[in-house]
Design brief:
2 domains; four-stranded mixed sheet; 501 residues; 60s Ribosomal Protein L30, Chain: A
Amino acid sequence: MIMHPVRTRRSADDFPFTEHLAYKIAEVAADPVAVEPQTEAMVLNRIIDDAAVSAAAVLRQPVTVARHQALAHRSRPGATVFGVDGSYSAEWAAWANGVAVRELDFHDTFLAAEYSHPGDNIPPLVAVAQQLGIRGADLIRGIATAYEIQIDLARGICLHEHKIDHVAHLGPSVAAGLGTMLRLDTETIYQAIGQALHLTTATRQSRKGSISSWKAFAPAHAGKVAIEAVDRAMRGERSPAPIYEGEDGVIAWLLSGPEHTYRVPLPAPGEPKRAILDSFTKEHSAEYQSQAPIDLARRLRQRIGDLDQVASIVLHTSHHTHVVIGTGSGDPQKFDPDASRETLDHSLPYIFAVALQDGSWHHEHSYAPERAHRPDTIALWHKISTVEDPEWTRRYHSTDPAEKAFGARAEVTLKSGEVISDELAVADAHPLGARPFGREQYIAKFTELAHGVVKPAEQQRFLTTVDGLADMKPGTLAALNVLVDPQVLEKAPTISSGIFQ
């Protein structure tokens, strides 16, 4: 890996475009390095994972809305929309499928200086591959690049400290992944990255206070924007530059300013793109930093016994966990039983309370209004708080995989004065956890979430297709779509008409 220093430059500076971070990213994307077998296997796992969570979300209102919008844009050639037959414009298929993947907060994650859900890269790449008749092997190459770029940007550039949403790293990563997949030249990819970043620097209000369904639409929007950016660049148009380093650019005005230097790691020429192997999926449908606490709660409940005897629970955890999903956020909505699902899946006190009571976590039942309104849940919920522990913050940012942690230490004080403590560094499904996810677990997650939604024969057809993706010929990638039982889709909510018909 090469560590690239990135800082603001004056317009009068001698700063050749080949030194721009966007160009360095484009060079990585244009590098025709082969995908290693372990990386390829993980790409297939994540395609399965995205399909799993999409199946679970297919009847959710935001997913239904996005699907209706996409179905108004038929196109031949085109791309597929999850769950239904037909051919639709790639950017709208990416939009619908991106919302389906993101809706339940149930797919993969990478956490470093910035947060990310790199599985968000898959829907736009698949959509373009389908519309343009790309080979399966090139789709795999593109996904490996997209993961690499988003994860490397997340390692080097913190967005949330300036209240910029993490999709600002997703726009460039999708553009880069598309560049690899389409075998575009470095200059074209560079221009596409510039436009994609320019248009995806939204604020984090989408993840603050009363959180709306835009949380699911935001990455889909970034993917759609990136597709349009690549299309425009392929037609010879240029984009704002230097987009990161410019005097009026992203670093100068949206991030740490002209005095700050970021350091972004990127693969050296000829170095395989392996970053996907550093990311991890979720066993539970909730914000990633709650994964280990859910498993910790399941372990603690037997030791606590009667939960009515709990006086207080303090979760000692990292700064990120404390301020994003904990009481350090200062968001009263995190204690509101009438809060949106999107808000509750970012409320660690709620999540820990329900996991303690139920000993399990479910993507629907754990968020049901009647579940959130249970008096005993509300009482326990309000006894739970978080505090930042410098050691957990240090481990959160550690570059040593054996030390890096996203967990917490729970201190449960009973009414008797007894204190019960336990801690868990990583979720059970983490590569270093008690039950690491491999292909078997990804398939099990898919079959569980697709049960009653996708017929068994269709499930098996999809899994067989994914297994043979590397050998799929041009024009065959529509087979990556999963068709949902039509009787299931009939249960989708009724959606009001909009502009697109």
